[in-house]
TrEMBL record:
Membrane spanning residue stretches: none
Keywords: ATP-binding, Kinase, Lipid A biosynthesis, Lipid biosynthesis, Lipid metabolism, Nucleotide-binding, Transferase
Pathway: Glycolipid biosynthesis; lipid IV(A) biosynthesis; lipid IV(A) from (3R)-3-hydroxytetradecanoyl-[acyl-carrier-protein] and UDP-N-acetyl-alpha-D-glucosamine: step 6/6
GO biological process, one term: lipopolysaccharide core region biosynthetic process
Gene label: lpxK
Enzyme Commission number(s): 2.7.1.130
Described purpose of this protein according to its UniProt entry: Transfers the gamma-phosphate of ATP to the 4'-position of a tetraacyldisaccharide 1-phosphate intermediate (termed DS-1-P) to form tetraacyldisaccharide 1,4'-bis-phosphate (lipid IVA).
Annotated residues for binding of ATP: 54-61
One of the record's GO cellular component terms: plasma membrane
Protein's UniProt name: Tetraacyldisaccharide 4'-kinase
One term of GO molecular function: lipid-A 4'-kinase activity
Coiled coil: none
């Protein structure tokens, strides 16, 4: 399911759809309060939670990847924990990238498992305990900010500066999983991802952010060895915001012949893939997609597609490093 456009209206003008859905949003608020009322338990290892307040992508996975590499560079081997959205495994299950596929563990788990021990578990507490028993010194939890059952040593809230908190309404009237004020109170650090102008706009619309520790960051394309400047491409993406990926391609100088967005974690069937491949070949273009989408493609089809990755670049690592050093004892 794709997020409706009215979710991303200004909080000052949320739109008639948001007002119409306000009663259902009130029910969501009650449910969110009940879900957040459980007790937190220590799994036996420090847990760093990377989450967000809105439905859809905000940059959590690139953030966890960046934190993983940062800790590894300091001699600390973290384990990654996630629910495994889109997969069938309930866990706790340690991901084997040579045997597991996206249908079993989800696309994000395969990205993490390529660089660090990764666990999929719908019961996050059980997953964190399994990681601790397996020798994890730190658990990096991709999503789960609203999960009350795992005691978090550090909670990092990721915010997409281009969208902020949308119209400021709760699901289904808006994109929020919980009220902004409630979520910000639990955040130790806010990672604001996007251009400086967009960051300033979000802080202007949501002055509550000024009371939190904020680190600015950007998502930048990773060099692929194949320059895209002036090259024709047929692009597709099934992520939280496909338009973000298409904008990245334009920044790389690609000439987009066609671009098709799909819902987050979309499972591609052979008919759709064949259609896009014919379009690319017929127009003399490269077929390109995201790293997350590539994890969901049939192995035989991946050789037909160029994968463009993005990496998180904080403005400065010092604030994040200080928080991580406190956990690891460096």
């Amino acid at each position: 399911m794709r997020a409706p456009e009215f979710w991303w209206a200004s909080p000052r003008r949320p739109g008639w759809q948001a007002r119409l859905l306000a009663p259902l949003a009130a029910l969501w608020r009650v449910g969110a309060a009940i879900r957040a009322s459980g007790d937190s338990e220590d799994p036996g290892v420090p847990v760093v939670c990377v989450g967000n307040l809105t439905a859809g992508g905000a940059g959590k996975t690139p953030t966890v990847v960046a934190l993983t590499r940062r800790l590894q560079a300091q001699g600390v081997e973290p384990h990654v924990l996630l629910r495994g959205h889109g997969g069938s495994v309930s866990g706790p299950h340690r991901v084997d990238p040579d045997r597991d596929g996206a249908a079993e563990v989800g696309d994000e788990a395969l990205i993490h498992a390529a660089i660090a021990p990764t666990w999929v578990s719908r019961d996050r507490l059980a997953g964190a305990r399994a990681a601790a028993r397996a020798g994890a010194r730190v658990v990096l939890m991709d999503d789960g900010f609203q999960n009350p059952h795992v005691l978090k040593a550090l909670s990092i809230l990721v915010v997409d500066a281009e969208q902020g908190f949308g119209n400021g309404r709760l699901i289904p009237a808006g994109p929020l999983r919980e009220p902004v004020e409630t979520g910000l109170r639990r955040a130790d650090l806010v990672l604001l991802i996007g251009a400086e102008e967009a960051r300033a706009q979000v802080i202007s619309e949501w002055p509550q952010l000024r009371d939190r520790k904020i680190v600015g960051a950007r998502l930048v394309p990773v060099a692929t060895g194949l320059p895209l400047e002036g090259e024709p491409v047929v692009a597709f993406a099934g992520i939280g915001r496909p338009g973000k990926f298409f904008d990245t391609l334009r920044q790389l100088g690609a000439r987009i012949v066609a671009a098709e967005g799909f819902p987050d974690h979309h499972v591609y069937d052979a008919r759709v893939l064949s259609r896009m491949l014919r379009l690319a070949r017929g127009s003399g273009a490269m077929l390109v997609t995201t790293e997350k989408d590539a994890a969901r493609l049939p192995a035989a089809f991946r050789r037909e597609v160029m994968v463009v990755q993005v990496a998180l670049e904080p403005d400065a690592w010092d604030v994040i490093d200080t928080a991580l050093d406190h956990l690891t004892g460096h």
